From TrEMBL:
Catalytic activity, reaction form: N-terminal N-formyl-L-methionyl-[peptide] + H2O = N-terminal L-methionyl-[peptide] + formate
Keyword entries, A-Z: Hydrolase, Iron, Metal-binding, Protein biosynthesis
UniProt function note: Removes the formyl group from the N-terminal Met of newly synthesized proteins. Requires at least a dipeptide for an efficient rate of reaction. N-terminal L-methionine is a prerequisite for activity but the enzyme has broad specificity at other positions.
Family: Belongs to the polypeptide deformylase family.
EC number: 3.5.1.88
HAMAP family linked: Pep_deformylase (MF_00163)
GO MF: peptide deformylase activity
Protein name: Peptide deformylase
Binding positions (Fe cation): C105, H147, H151
């Protein structure tokens, strides 16, 4: 089932996610619904707070990035097969010199800005079967994971922008929270919720 994606301005996007256990209610159904929701919106990642649940769960599928002509064959190969669910993840290390990349977010449609992040991470997490992993990721893969990880920490990519950039996009963000935007996927807007 396609779930509505929560728009910028909703308090759930600012909550630090709580850990979940193997017996979290209807976890398999939630994961299936989140995959369907993400693909319907042409996303490469989706975190539980973006569907209204302040829990430590997100998923990524970086295969759309594998089409990028500018990437090396090694990078394309890594991105092509990277489809994972991360439950209760902890980034234990971020390394290297920060680099900029133009990011967007399904909860903040039509806003894209350069964000600086470290190029390499180590992350511990459980998969959907509660098997535990510790893995290293680099480049775009690391960036997608960091972006989704921020969601379960109550952080949005717009928080990482300069105060000047924040002022420039302030009007756009206000319009998103009021539902004054056209998107081709289901969304829930905080200002419209209050009006009912």
């Amino acid at each position: 089932m396609i779930l509505p994606i929560i728009a910028y301005g909703d308090p759930v996007l600012r909550k630090k996610g709580k850990e979940i256990s193997r017996d979290y209610p209807k976890l398999d159904e939630l994961i299936a619904n989140m995959w369907e929701t993400m693909y319907n919106a042409f996303g490469v990642g989706l975190a539980a707070p973006q569907v209204g649940l302040p829990v430590r769960l997100f998923m990524i599928d970086t295969s759309p990035f594998a089409e990028d002509e500018d990437l090396s064959e090694e990078e394309k190969k890594e991105l092509e097969g990277l489809k994972k669910v991360f439950i209760n993840p902890v980034i234990t290390k971020e390394e290297g010199d920060e680099w900029a990349f133009n990011e967007g977010c399904l909860s903040i449609p039509d806003v894209r800005e350069d964000v600086f992040r470290k190029p390499e991470i180590t992350i511990e997490y459980f998969d959907e079967n509660f098997n535990k992993y510790t893995e290293n990721y680099k480049g775009l893969a690391a960036r997608v994971i960091q972006h989704e990880y921020d969601h379960i920490e109550g952080i949005l990519f717009t928080d990482k922008l300069s105060s000047l950039k924040k002022r420039i996009i302030k009007g756009k963000l206000a319009n998103i929270s009021k539902g004054k935007i056209t998107v081709d996927y289901r969304m829930r807007f905080p200002e419209l919720k209050k009006a009912r």
